[in-house]
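Help! Submission page says 'invalid entity' but I think these are all valid:
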Amino acid sequence: MLSGMSFNALGLDPKILQAVKEAGYTEPTPIQAAAIPPILAGHDLIGIAQTGTGKTAAFTLPMLTRLATVIGDGRQRGTLALVLAPTRELVLQIEENVKAYGKHLPLRVATVFGGVGEHPQINALRAGTHLIIACPGRLMDLMQRRYADFSRLQYLVLDEADRMLDMGFLPSIRQIVRSVPQKRQTLLFSATLSKEIETLTHEFQRAPKTVQIGRRANPAETVTQLVYEVPKSLKPALLLHLLRDPAMNMVLVFSRMKHAADRVARNLEQQGIKTATLHSNRSQNQRLKALKDFKSGAVRVLVATDIAARGIDVDGISHVVNYDFPMHAEDYVHRIGRTGRAHAVGDAISFVTHEDQGELRALERFIGRGIVRKKAEGFDYGAVVPHVAEDRPRHQQQRGQQRGTQRPQRSQHSSSQSRPPQGGRPQHGGGGHSQQGGGRPHQPVSGNREGGNEHRPGVRPQGHVRRYSPR
Ligand code: AMP
């Protein structure tokens, strides 16, 4: 999705134009074409755009153009710009972009986020680094200990403001904003314009211009969306089945819970599919390595939870698989925004169980369109996998997991429902014998959403009703 304009027409600094050219961008995207002129003119701005639209460059390019004149030869000290973002992954990606676009400027950039040693961050804040990109929590902590001096700050950017509110950062953000000069330019980006975001803009901005790309909550237009209706017990087999397609060469799989992400990854690894995981139980180094391996192609599949995956900016993701249907409609929009980024075309596949149907319909209302339901070609929907956790003692479940053989069996009740198509693969059905005995027919889904974790500590009890709140 390009704007048909030229970067040259936007009034950017020549050194930045040079860097943009070196990044391989030929034309601005619509959000860039719309947002760069008012930012250069000094206006506060509300940008309503999803990730994948080029919004980082939309605020970075004009901000760096304006900073270029202030920092001069670079000896100038003092933090002039602060970007707040919800997760460390997003912070690191913004840093990567800022460094690429500002590579011909004597610009000093630093990041601040939790989970890593604070001394380099303290030193950067003390040194008056020109541009700081930070998660609100750690920054607030360091500010309270008086390590930061934002008295010269001219630019404040709140990126993914909706997500920062969701994550409970509002009190920190308020305190941070109170400690920076009132005379500043404030840019706020959000995937959606909710009432809460509007309140925030009134509080933090002056006469902001609004730039909105696409309809509210409209998922990236380049992404082909599909739903596979599948019993929960067949999700692992369906994922493996889909991964037989070599076109699925760079696949981001979303699970709702950390331990479920680990379980999906373990299962794929056991089948010889190189997989990494990204969730908040993993250390910063493990997360960075997972992303690096995924980007480089060393692993084919990355299994992530929503928060950890926030802001993942990896070019060339071929498919996003919603292994677990997302909790919120906005998460869906963010998840599928990971593929089809900028100009690529990608597929977003959602596994939907019987229990997810109501939520699927709510999502369709939210995004204002229906999503195509499909049957996976060659997959045996008649196969039934025993309800491992419910029916077998824990030691047997573990053995089953270690072998990676949740052997399917055909249900007496489902045999008429969906015969395997010709050429269907035998291991998913064909009357494989039951390990539990008794040939229990498959049931849609039990009250527990996490499937197979019923005996684990810290997992919600059966019967828990999930919140689903398209906001
Ligand atoms: P963002 O929405 O900021 O996360 O950007 C999504 C992706 O689009 C990133 O990988 C950028 O490198 C890329 N991108 C940003 N602007 C352009 C452009 N004008 N032309 C091509 N790619 C772009």
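Support: the input was valid. A stray whitespace character was the problem, and the output above is from the cleaned input. The CA atoms of residues 284 and 311 lie 15 Å apart.
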